[in-house]
Write a structure and sequence with these properties.
The complex is a heterodimer of chains A (630) and B (674). In chain A, α1 packs across α2. Chain A is globular and about 70 Å long. Helices cover 22% and strands 28% of the residues of chain A. With 630 residues, chain A is α/β, with parallel strands linked by helices. Chain A has a 16-stranded mixed beta sheet that branches. In chain A, strands 23-24-26-25-27-28 form a six-stranded mixed beta sheet. Chain A has a three-stranded antiparallel beta sheet with strand order 4-1-6, with no helix packed on it. Chain B has 674 residues and is of the alpha/beta class. Chain B has 27 helices and 30 strands. In chain B, the strands form seven sheets. Chain B has a seven-stranded parallel beta sheet, sandwiched between helices. Chain B has a six-stranded parallel beta sheet with strand order 26-25-24-27-28-30. In chain B, β22, α16 and β23 form a beta-alpha-beta unit. In chain B, α3 packs across α6, α5 runs parallel beside α9 and α9 packs across α11. The N and C termini of chain B lie far apart (71 Å). The chains are: A alpha/beta (630), B alpha/beta (674).
Amino acid sequence: MKNPINAVRRAMTESAKRIAYSPQVRNAARTVLTSDAANPVRNVLADKGLEGHLQRFTSESLPEDKYFAKLTIENWEQFNGQSFRLYQDSTVAYGNEIEPPAKGFPLEYRNLIVTSADVSDFTLDIDSPYTLQIGKGAFTTPQQVSYDKQYGVEQHGDVFYSKRGNTTSPKKLFITFPGFGPSTSRISYAVSYLKGITEAELSDTLMICFQDRYLAAGSYMLVDNAGRSLVDRVNEVIQSFIDKHSIPKDQILLFGASKGGSIAVQYADHYPEAQLLLAVPQMHLKYYLDKPFFKDNIYNESGMHSVPQPESLIRRYFDQGRTIDYFYTNSDEQSNFSLIEAVTEVPGLTKYRIDGKHGDVAKKALPTMMGIIRRFVSDNSLKNDLMAEDIHVFDDGDTLGVQIRIDDDWSPSGTANWYLQNTLGRTQFLQMLTEHDLPFVKYTNPDQRLIPDLDRADSDWALVAVDESGNHWEGSLPEQPRMQVGGSEEWPLSTAKLRLDANTPLEHFIVSGSDISTFIYMSRRGIGQVSAIDIYVVDDINEFDLAEYSMNSESRFVAAIETEDLDHHLALMIDRLSVISACDARNVSDLRSTCNSVVDRAYVTANTDDLPAECVGAENRLSTDFVVSG
Amino acid sequence: MSEQEPLLTVVIEAAEPLDKESTTYRRLMSARLQWETSFVITVDKSPLTTPRIAEICAARPSKYIVFVKQSHQISANFLSTILKHINSRTVYMAEPFIYSGSIPKKVGKPRNELTYVYDRDTDIHGVVFNAGRLADALDAVSDIDRTAIYLAYRLYWSINDINPLETGYSVASVTKSAIGLTTGQGPRRLLPLIPSSSSKVRLHVLRLLILFLRGLRESESTDVPLDHLRDIVETYQLTNYLNYPEPMHPFECAWIKWLDDPHAPQQLFKRLSDKDAYFEFSDADNSLDSDIELHRISFGNETVAVSKSYLPHERRPELDSPEVYDFYSRPITTNSTIIFFDRPMQADDNAEYLYAHFTQQHPEFDKVYFALNPKSPDWERLSQCGFKLIPIFTPEFNELFLRSDLVVSSQIYNLRHKGKTLANSRFVYLQHGVQLNDMTNWVNSKYFDIFVATGVVEADYLREVAPVEVINSGLPRLETLRSNADRSGNLLFMPTWRFNLHHASPDQFRDSQYYRAISDLLTDKTLLEFLERTDRELHVKLHPNVETRAGAFRFSDRVIKSDLSYREAISDAEVVFTDYSSAVLDASFVGTPIAYYQWDTEDFYLEQPYQSRLDYRQDGLGPVFTEHNDVVAHLVSERYSTPDPELEARRDTFFAGVDVDRINDTIIDRMLSL
């Protein structure tokens, strides 16, 4: 092996930079310097304070025309909460919504991928001083360097991970994938290390904690910094561990929360017998990323959207009857994309409905998730009886609240989660409960109430507790919460995939909290070539001639939605159709009789947030290029 | 100030002659050793009113002034600590740690500072004022009552925080907390409304207001207008601090909530099984159709009616939420945990007797506990009787209380743990005896679901304020109480207690009329000769509060301090006499003659937090004596053994309604249906 220290030093001179950062040299150096055998060398470089240089030098190589950029916004306080865009010439190179950086640190956005090394090609659309650094090596921070060291993050080619537990002769494989950190974190790339799981508990298990070290804040491990697919490279790494240690196919657990959940769904593809532990995964990335934080960065990363959406993968997994523990909240339609909330009859699936926002789920359900992991790594768990002494049901006409008094001589002594449990067909369903200040009372808070349209269980509800050791307590209820269900309502709600080729009326529901809207819609490919979708909101879809409208449209897709809904859900429904159409524009017309003027109903908007509450055409005047008559 | 003038004047407030041998006086004087010329002591025999204090300060006797009441207690270093502090600086004021009970051995920062601040007495005593500044302040706020001077001074000079000096002062009385302030007519405002953002000042204001309102329930009249009280509540945002007074003064807290929001005249007081108890407040403009009028209080020209009503649970939508646990939500069943207790250190009272009966008659209830202090002499006895004992007021007790469906006791404590209180859970109050005094104001601020009365006279009196809760069953201990067929013929004397002696020094105690009257009786030659001649004994059953002072009395072969239980002592006696104790009614209940020796009828109710409702001479179940010689004559003549038809008739009326064979079962039937 050549002396890499000298090689790095040489590379630091301007004249040698170009050569040193050439893909060929860096690929060779990366292969050498990121191998296990190079540990002593890395240590020497670290001692000499050259770790950052090494990081950049061995970071992923970019094509000739791409560069890493670091944007530092000086005067961020003035613009806190506002969106900004960094333009390269007239094209958006990066955008985000300003959030405060860590205290005492500047507001930095690192590893933006740009196609010019000339700083003068760039402008910022807010009136704040800024600096832009551009180079061929990835940018990092001392905190990230320290973090990587603390968690033993290793680089293997373009794939990053840390290893824990039994690395020599494991019988099980436990793989974790990370979620997003705060956009302004000094540690942009974390790992789900799960410190609570001890090395001793991993005595039979190899734990691989992947790091999503791509782009500014991660790429769902779908593309590398150059936008090229990573899927095969990551799959190879996983398969190499399975092969190396002859891990049985049913002794694999993949875990991820939020973005990590979506990644876990992606990389479970080849392992139908593996167990999946998911918390709030995004089911449709483009729909989820259609928001200020992502809109002008990874939302536009085309490579990320060319693979099947997690929604498609998990529907297949459901069909396969895979073992899936899925934690979600009804207040997260952005992630759920109208699937997990209403899905029933899926064997192998256990749904845990947690209350709160997207970011609350993993925190609240941590004892349960840790318990599932511990049951996987140890195969041990205790089953115990619970004694529910009293139950009181609170029926407000729409939802059911429950308060249960237990004999707490029989309950977990440590931290545990409490649930109401039932089956929805072949699917296990657990609704989280809240622990009262009185230790013997468990109850539904306002966001935990049972919803007849979703929770029409077919057997008796039971009270369940799960602790972080994987122990399980279960007891019957002295009385069953009975739901008032209207006879005409169809159940379960249709969880069919939202389609653009719906030539006959189909249903699609949207849930937020306990509010459920059901839409009947149709959609078809039009004859037009304009990258747009026309969406008509109608009173009666059977009276609407979609074919005729599509014949007269220049747009690529035409859709109709029948609903009485006037609120936020309609806007979401329109968003969803727009996003799955992948069109640049949407033309929305409300033809419902609730509106005053037929002529005024048509309008064009690129953002359905502008939908007026009462009548969508009233404020957004008719587009000149699209007129609705009748 | 000339060089000869002392630094500090100590004004001793002494209505009675100065006791120069008292600990307090000697401790004050001991500071002379180091600070001989720095302070002077003056004695003020006139009541320390606001004008009098202004007069004293105006004379500028010294730079600083402190007021000490003769009956109060001070730490040994009280004066020297103060002098050392004010000697080296100029301050508006300084103060020691101020207590109501005994001064703790280690005086210093309390564990919960705000609780200390709220509990601290707000009068002037023990506080060192800058005399000149006090004169200035009183010049501006001369219209306030003496009891508000301390607070007015702090508000006037914007003194938000004071770090107490490491010495102690005790007002040595809890009476004020029990009966409130007596400001009388005159002041038209409680305080100058000078804003303060200090939580500590606000807590002091709250305490002052609470005690003022408590006092109003006694006097029912003030010249302070209602709007001024409303202004105080609003200015100092007192409703934010009601968790401090709520345990002791729930009535006054309800009142303050109404002052804060006159549109909410009905304030929830206690959850009950069928309906909830509310206090209702109404002024002339808003009369209410209440169940019971408790008070009609005049505030200058305005009158406020304070009432109690029982209103349906539907008024409380919060009970329809799973987040609120209703301790009444499940019936009492054989699976219920039930806790009984009497006094922590002494059982042998109604809870013990009811527990024994209940566990014997209802063995299907297997989670029934009796709470007691393990150091109580009764612990071993009850343990041998098979009582399921738990140590009272321990974490284990609290957890059991939390899970219990019912608490039954002859004592009322402010039980509270994790949000459970007696206001929102079931409680059966058995009492220790029969109420002969007018304690309705006390009764009104206590939480209970069942209040056990004995006889129609007491039940009728209690039903005036608690018609739903009162049950005329009789006290549990009476069901099995019998007069011993082969009783000894001994006499039993059961003197009760005096509130004002709670913190009396041994000397003060010996000087008290209470001590002298009892002591004179126990050593009366005629009585002793009678006892000797008839081979009788006089058994003296001291009140538990006097047990520690028993050594002050001279017992003898014939005059014996009884260590028997009340029950045994009464069963064994030929005649039982007392000053005011209702315990003698037990004797009357089983037909044993009783008598009253009330040597201090004039003063007794002045220092007590309640008034007699019973005219002992008209309605008492035994003859009443006020003179030592008369009671001795009654005893030695054995007149008590002659039946008195009038007393018999009074007795029958008094205990009417009590089915002696079903006392316990009547209570049990009612308590299990709560």
